[in-house]
Amino acid sequence: MTELADRPAVHTGLIVNGKTVETDDHTAIHNPASPEEVVGYAAAATREQARDAVAAAYDAFPAWAATPAKRRAEIIEAALGLLDGTAGERAELMTRENGKIAFESNVEMDVFGIRTRHALSLVGTLGEVRRFDGPPLTSELHTLPVGVVTIIVPFNWPIAILAASLPYALAAGNTVVIKPPPSVPLSLVRTIERFASGLPAGVVNVVTGSNEAVSPVVSDPRVAKIVFTGSTAAGKRIMAAAAPNLTSVTLELGGNDPAIVLDDADLGEENIGRLTLGAFLTTGQVCMAVKRVYVHRSRYDELVEAMTGALNAHRVGPGQDPSTTLGPLNSAAQRDIVTSMLQEASDAGAEIRELGTLAPEAASSGGHYLRPSLVLDPDPSLRIVTEEQFGPALPILPFDDLDAVLTEVNTGWSGLCSSVWSADPSRAAEVARRLRTGTTWINNANAVACDDRVPFGGFRQSGLGREMGPDGLLAYTEPHSITW
User: Fold this and answer.
1) Residue 302 domain-assigned?
2) % helix, strand, coil for the chain, step of 5
3) Contact 63, 175 (CB under 8 A)
4) Is the entire prediction scored with pTM above 0.85?
5) Distance (Å, rounded) from C-alpha 232 to C-alpha 255?
6) Residues near 482 by Cβ (< 8 Å), separated by ≥ 6?
7) Any idea which residues carry the catalytic annotation?
8) 457 inside domain
9) Collapsing DSSP states into helix, strand and coil, what is residue 4?
10) Given Cys at both, which of 105, 277, 341, 462 links 95, Cβ 3.0 to 4.6 Å?
11) Based on the domain organization, do 224 and 294 belong to the same domain?
């Protein structure tokens, strides 16, 4: 900790029209594991600088859109190569500003390349022209890029989540303005400044700063599409801001994702490990994480004891410590939200099992730490069940009637992801087909099981639209019909 804290603070600027732009003001970025440590300073843009970024993307659009899709893919692939040899440095920076463990930060750097290359593999479909012959009419159907796309990403996996949209937008012929998360901007800017240097000026721009100052990246009429990943409440504000210009939106929002454990589930070490990871990856700060477990009453005690044992093996501490398995939460505010939910559940009579061990240095650091907790058989009306806790606290609820659970899941506010756990794949698939969530996993959950070949997104208040896969690529195009 001392060695890292003694390193010089990182300074990042804006990226506008192919150049790094310095600003008069900067925002200090603190280490969640040791909040007194300043990891770096991110440029704080003015409204005028945010408009400059939109203008740069707008001016670069015609030439980029006119570039053949195959050539665009070649340019993007070459730009990706500029990141070679830098993953370790960028991952270390991610751990220091985000708080996640080093292993997850390294995975995140890899995911950016994997997702980008997958997006590029789909560009062959962009040049297809569908023809509808007459008489009396004959038509051709073309796909055209939408224009300037603003991408707003959250703090938890910002670079990986950016890769679910940025390469698809670029491959389709759009230009982009990226708004990094306020608390975790540094490693993303470091990544994109290298990547963007291999692209024509203005094709990718990055603007950091307060939401008010950078509001033109949402409200400017030259922005054709907004892609936002974050909470449901913030997504509603983005949608409202897009309404005056009728700007297209893709919203990947909150999830209160259920795991449904059937009476024949395999609760051996492998599946318990998957379920535990599905709930507590990144200290529970993942939109597609398991947020509540419904388990058949006949298996309730067995599941609780198995997960208790698995979580007791966890060590909570600073993310750069190789022995740490769960880092701090990214902010004190989120820690306090989870703590208040746990207190409310305890006051209502639910048993709270606080598990794992807290590293000695973590206990005295003032970091945003919480040990992982199981909330046993809580009242279903409590916030720990009905809301997205986004932290290391998991309610486990026994059930007798599967139909009632499915009705609860399918009519609730969220519909991002779900999972079904059964030793019988056919039975699990039958239950999965009855669920109305964007993704349902069988005997697995969370990002470790995400298949980038298929679209990702949510039902109901978990979002609008889809990202990734062929559907995700087409989401960055508009159909153009020519009829004679």
Assistant:
1) yes
2) 40, 25, 35
3) no
4) yes
5) 8
6) 139, 140, 142
7) 252, 287
8) no
9) helix
10) 105
11) no
Same domain, 444 and 466: no
Residue 6 confidence (pLDDT): 61
Number of structural domains, the chain? 2
The answer on 199 and 100 residing in a single domain is: yes
Residues 342 and 432 in one domain: yes
Q: Are residues 162 and 284 in the same domain?
A: no
How do residues 2-29 score in pLDDT, each as one tens digit?
444 567 899 999 999 999 999 999 999 9
- Write down the residue that tokens 């206990």 correspond to: 363
Helix ranges, 197-231 (H): 216-219
Mean predicted confidence (pLDDT) in 273-296: 97
Any alpha helices (H) in 226-382, and if so which ranges? 232-242, 269-280, 300-312, 332-347, 360-363
Burial class (CB in 10 A: 0-12, 13-18, 19+), 75: middle
Q: Is the peptide bond before 145 cis (omega within 30 degrees of 0)?
A: no
Count of CA atoms in the C-beta half-sphere (13 A) of 287? 30
Over residues 239-279, the pLDDT tens digits come to 999 999 999 999 999 999 999 999 999 999 999 999 999 99
The alpha carbon dihedral of 328, 333, 337, 340 has a sign of positive
Which two structure tokens, joined as six digits, stand for 64?
């980029």
